[in-house]
Automatic annotation (TrEMBL):
Organism (species): Pseudoxanthomonas gei
Sorted UniProt keywords: Hydrolase, Magnesium, Metal-binding
UniProt-listed InterPro entries: AP_endonuc_1 (IPR004808), Endo/exonu/phosph_ase_sf (IPR036691), Endo/exonuclease/phosphatase (IPR005135), ExoIII-like (IPR037493)
Cofactor(s) of this protein: Mg(2+)
Name of the molecule in the record: Exodeoxyribonuclease III
Boundaries of every Endonuclease/exonuclease/phosphatase domain copy: 9-253
Family: Belongs to the DNA repair enzymes AP/ExoA family.
Amino acid sequence: MPAKRLKVATFNVNGIRSRLPHLLAWLEKEKPDIACLQELKSVDAGFPIDEIHAAGYGAVWKGQSAWNGVAVLARGVDPVESRRVLPGDAADEQSRYLEVVVHGLVVACLYLPNGNPQPGPKFDYKLEWFDRFITHAASLYASGHPVVLAGDFNVVPTDFDIYDPKSWRKDALLQPESRARYETLLRQGWTDSLRFRHPDERIYTFWDYFRQHWPRNAGLRIDHLLLNDVLAPRLHAAGVDTWVRDLPKASDHAPTWISLDQAPVKAGKATKTVKAVKAAPASRKR
């Protein structure tokens, strides 16, 4: 029998209400076991939980009117929320971070600030948020649990991750400060799944709406799934579901995914993991 594997994906839906048919079509066809969503652009009450349940998924979400918003969907189960704010700034009210335990993994879903225009306060906020995330990621990495950091990082790691960097040099996604922080994160030991599985391939996850970027495959790689050393040995494959980007009125991102070999679960292990992670401060699902 073929080995059973776990599929984890991240998808910036760019408006969950307007792109709900696309999301549901993708869930039905690709059947990810875990799906991290960004840019819901919906308040909590507007999250389409009935449709998500009908598709066979449980969900935890944190919305925000018109902007931001993150969610984690899980096939056949309800994710267990462990954190819904990034530590380090009690005054930060933007909905950009959600942490859950599901299918034996600790999953951090993030929508890192874009930072444009730069220089300016939006770029300053991006770097400050990134610094807080790096600090928190270090504790997750060292937790002893299998951890995946999944989301729209709004960072193009290298020039190899963009079709042509010349016209983007002033963009916040390519700034040396942004890239340096991504490198700092990786130096903690995280494995960049997509690049690890495709070391020599120009592979993209985002195509701007302007200047025919999608038809020309003029893309950027800004959606990432990073694995700690506990989880990285289970990485089997990684890819991008580009067919979703080709749908009418699609999001400018395509779902990015990994498949993981299933680890045997000893009796009581999953419960202990949930209890350990839930010990972190967290509020209840709204």
